[in-house]
Design goal:
Blueprint: H1 11-14, H2 22-39, E1 45-50, E2 67-73, H3 76-85, E3 92-97, E4 110-115, H4 123-133, E5 134-144, H5 153-161, E6 165-173, E7 176-184, E8 196-200, H6 203-212, E9 216-227, E10 230-241, E11 252-255, E12 260-265, E13 288-292, H7 310-321, E14 328-334, H8 338-348, E15 352-358, H9 367-373, H10 377-393, H11 398-406, H12 412-427, H13 430-437, E16 441-447, H14 455-458, E17 465-469, H15 476-479, H16 481-493
């Protein structure tokens, strides 16, 4: 799917869009600008128009000197038209050539985003562009059209009569699949330049897709407008918010007991209770302690719009760490917790005193994440997730039985997305490299009975100190807490 190249066709007479509707602007765009202005300290607002065409949407904004209008389109002719149209506008207008594959806009630089009739060419890229460009807390107005909606049938029928073909297609977002209907214009009598237009088949699919792309739905409305081929089109218009991480609740447990802080990061499907023994461990009495539930686990919130990628988990934990004054922080990360932990280490910089990797993933997938990666999300949610919990509840290993209990508080979507991201990081070798590159003191801790399974990991880190916890397997901090926390205390006490 790609954006079409226009210029050879008469845009206004050919494109089915509400972009020239003042009613559309007043209902969907004007309120976003007003809200953004209230949040801005100087009331100067930047508006991004994705795949802007000749910029009709900006015609309702051009007289406002408090606006900077940023637009881009793939068509040189349409960009030229827009540049000419707005060269003397009171608003500062910057319309340039560009595509959603390489959007000409900086990250977190936009207050308001608009996409009118743009999603039908590349839903993934359009929403990725908006999410990248919007400041946290910023909003976009994006319209979709549902295939099968009775109001839109005349439009589809008109295109079929002119030679277009209706096809089926599927797109995927990190394993979540979405069925689409495609209007293929390749054999259209007058508009082969349009290539393909894609349409979701239900509002529920649109909303699931939007969440998978990292947006919260603030509002949903419908809008009717006339076009050449249809006197009464209906589009679904969504107000999409790029959420602020600070608004996502995470559950944490904190003890202030010393100048240096140990933060404990649990593994996939676990909770902060993985490290409950730390609060009773005498060797750690001189340290302040912090354990958190990652987003989607334990008692933390589990929003659909959260990506559950390791970097974003680290970003949210960093906000939590900022609440505390400790200048020296030691990270203890168990299993998959090492992935967000390694991103967190980068954010901590010189504040990181040491990194203790407790059977971290690095270059292998564990049994639970591997099963998630091998399934579609629907399969995982409907059968694999519950079956996995049931199986591990019957394990002969007490650590895995505990894991099955913690998994009762794990979100299936969060688990699935995290597993997909983990597989990517393992495959590209990023976790191993990040661990090797750490300048802080580091060690790799593992259970005695895990040694054989961890050979592929241990071979990648020959120069890293290894600590073996006797009489334990994957969950050495619960299998043998006395020795685990004694060893941890000794590691942290060593200098250099």
């Amino acid at each position: 799917m790609s954006e079409p190249g226009f210029g050879e066709i008469e845009y206004d007479q050919s494109i089915n869009t509400p972009s020239k509707s003042r009613a559309y602007y007043e209902k969907f765009h004007a309120p976003l600008i007003s809200e953004a202005r209230q949040r801005s300290f100087n009331h100067q607002i930047t508006v991004l128009n994705v795949a802007c065409g000749p910029g009709h949407e900006f015609e309702f904004m051009e007289d406002d000197p408090g606006l900077r209008l940023v637009g881009f389109d793939i068509s040189p002719e349409l960009v030229k038209q827009a540049q000419e149209r707005f060269k003397d506008s009171a608003a500062r207008a910057d319309v340039v050539l560009g595509t959603t594959k390489r959007p000409p806009v900086a990250e977190n630089s936009i207050d308001v985003g608009i996409a009118v009739n743009a999603v039908i060419y590349n839903p993934n890229a359009v929403l990725d562009t908006l999410h990248y460009a919007l400041r946290p807390g910023g909003n976009s107005a994006v319209n979709f059209r549902v295939f099968g909606n009775k109001f839109n049938e005349p439009f589809y029928q008109a295109q079929i009569e002119k030679g277009a073909i209706i096809e089926d297609k599927e797109i995927e977002v990190d394993g979540e699949k979405f069925e689409l209907k495609v209007v293929n214009y390749a054999t259209h009598e007058s508009l082969p330049q349009l290539g393909e237009q894609v349409y979701f088949t239900s509002e529920s699919d649109i909303e699931r897709f939007v969440a998978a792309k990292g947006f919260a739905i603030a509002k949903h409305d419908k809008f009717h407008y006339a076009s050449v081929d249809n006197p009464d089109n209906e589009v679904e218009v969504y107000k999409l918010e790029k959420p602020e991480l600070k608004d996502i609740h995470i559950s944490s447990k904190y003890r202030e007991s010393g100048d240096e802080l140990i933060i404990f990061l649990h593994g996939l499907g676990c909770t902060k209770d993985s490290f409950a023994g730390a609060w009773e461990a005498k060797p750690l009495e001189g340290y302040s302690l912090l354990a958190t539930d990652f987003v989607g686990y334990g008692d933390s919130s589990r929003p659909e719009y959260f990506s559950y990628r390791m970097k974003e988990q680290a970003d949210r934990i960093m906000l939590e760490l900022d609440k505390y004054p400790h200048k020296k922080i030691h990270t203890v990360a168990h299993s998959v917790g090492d992935a967000p932990g390694l991103f967190l280490a980068e954010r901590l910089g010189d504040r990181l005193g040491s990194f203790i990797n407790v059977e971290g993933t690095l270059n292998i997938l564990g049994p639970s994440s591997a099963r998630a990666v091998d399934a579609s999300y629907d399969e995982f949610k409907e059968s694999v997730f519950s079956r996995m919990k049931d199986e591990f509840a019957q394990s002969s290993d007490p650590g895995w039985r505990l894991w099955a209990e913690w998994m009762q508080k794990a979100d299936s979507l969060g688990f699935y997305r995290s597993s997909k991201d983990l597989a990517r990081l393992v495959k590209n070798g990023e976790l191993v490299q990040r661990f090797r590159d750490l300048k802080a003191r580091k060690a790799y801790v593992y259970g005695e009975r895990s040694a054989q399974r961890l050979v592929p990991v241990l071979l990648t880190i020959p120069d890293v100190q290894k600590i073996v916890i006797p009489d334990s397997e994957h969950f050495s901090m619960t299998d043998n807490p006395k020795v685990f926390y004694e060893q941890l205390s000794q590691l942290l006490a060593r200098k250099g």
